[in-house]
Design brief:
This protein is α+β, with helices and mostly antiparallel strands. The chain has four helices and nine strands, in the order E-E-H-E-E-E-E-H-E-E-E-H-H. The chain has one domain (about 5-165): Nucleoside Triphosphate Pyrophosphohydrolase, CATH 3.90.79.10. The strands form three sheets. Strands 6-3-8-7 form a four-stranded mixed beta sheet, with helices on both faces. A three-stranded antiparallel beta sheet has the order 5-4-9. The chain has a two-stranded antiparallel ribbon with strand order 1-2.
Amino acid sequence: MEELVVLVNHEDQVLGLMEKQQAHINGLLHRAFSVFIFNEKGEMLLQKRAKKKYHSPGKWTNAVCSHPRNGETYLEGANRRLYEELGIKAELLEKFHFIYKANVGDSLWEHELDHVFTGVYNLDFNLNADEVEEIRFISLEDLEAEIAQHPEQFTEWFKIILEEYKHNL
């Protein structure tokens, strides 16, 4: 099934739909969401992207990043992808939204109006192997040290969104 993204302007007004990979090739602004999941200790959940992903395979990133479907709210999309990728349901709160553009390699761009959600989860996961290779929880302090030492092991958008998150705490 062809996956479409919702193209928007800077005011989040819909301009049309485009196949996801083509939007990433063209670097066109589209709707997206990012989910940060924490455990009861305040550690952040990271997922390692499956090796068969068409961009940024095998890199660490936040719990979920994806795109709402046409007619789907940002929150509905975030809840859908939490379940599709990690097999979980969590109460999510929107923290902020912002626009960023990042080169993710192989002539692909993420140019997104990104709505960032947070949630807390402490139970079991049911990982979708097509999406996620592995998961782990990490303290923000240890995460920052790891990113400083090995930035190439993390997705470009995650590094940007994490900085934005810290400024919006």
